[in-house]
Amino acid sequence: MKSFEFYEPTTLAEASRLFAEEHAQLLAGGTDIIIGMKALTETPETVISLQKIPGLTGITTDSDSINIGAMTKVREVELSADIQQHHTALAEGAAEIGSIQIRNLATIGGNIAHASPAADTVAGLLVADAQVDIASADGERSVPIDKLFTGPGQTVLTPGEIITRFRLPSPASCSHYIKHKLREVMDLAFIGRAAAVILDNGTITDARIGLAAVAPTPIRAVEAEDLLNGNAPTAELLEQAGEAAAAGCSPISDLRCSAEHRREMVDVLTRRTLQYALERASA
Fold first, then answer.
1. Most C-beta atoms within 10 A of its C-beta, which of 142, 186, 269, 280?
2. Looking at residue 188, what is its pLDDT?
3. Which domains are present in the chain?
């Protein structure tokens, strides 16, 4: 590990000023950056801890949304009764990250800011239609989660900008997450898949499908969603939605599996996650 300057600011303004400097990186839970620094794939000259900045942790609710601070531990997201009830896919995705020890360190903000196309919390946030609050020394702004990513490891964040909160708007839908992986635990997703639906008198009034690890960025399967909305769920309709989701993704082949396998499983798992979400909506 190369030597570096270490700072523990107590305000977002101070953290933003430091983070705007060249070769600076943030430290949240540390489960990604510390591994990278030890392997010399990450060589920051400045590391800025967010641990002492107030207001970045915790899960709160109001009349319009459930709010998750960016420094909230993934384990807390996994176990939150509000998240489990209203945004089940996000709780299920959080439960898939590493081991319990890792989830007790890792933060949801770090999981998203790392911008891995295979992040386990991202599909649940996509189908929750989450808003991402961002702060810097110049002020605050908010972007939809599906507009945050620009490529593998890349986001719309500008120098000095820090993710502070995720807002999951109401009304909540019934959702489900499936991670297609090789090992039972502590494995990257071949595919991350979430679906959320709202049923009204047997008709799908709002369907959302989130995909991870099948494109350069996490994506919504918009064409499949459009097929579902306004229709009664049938086996034929779910099959069409699966085919549309598979057609709309752009997977790659890597050491874990082939692009062809990923595309085939997008079709299969879209139908499966939708079926689980529909069962929860009908219960």
1. 269
2. 76
3. 5-49 (3.30.43.10), 59-169 (3.30.465.10), 175-282 (3.30.390.50)
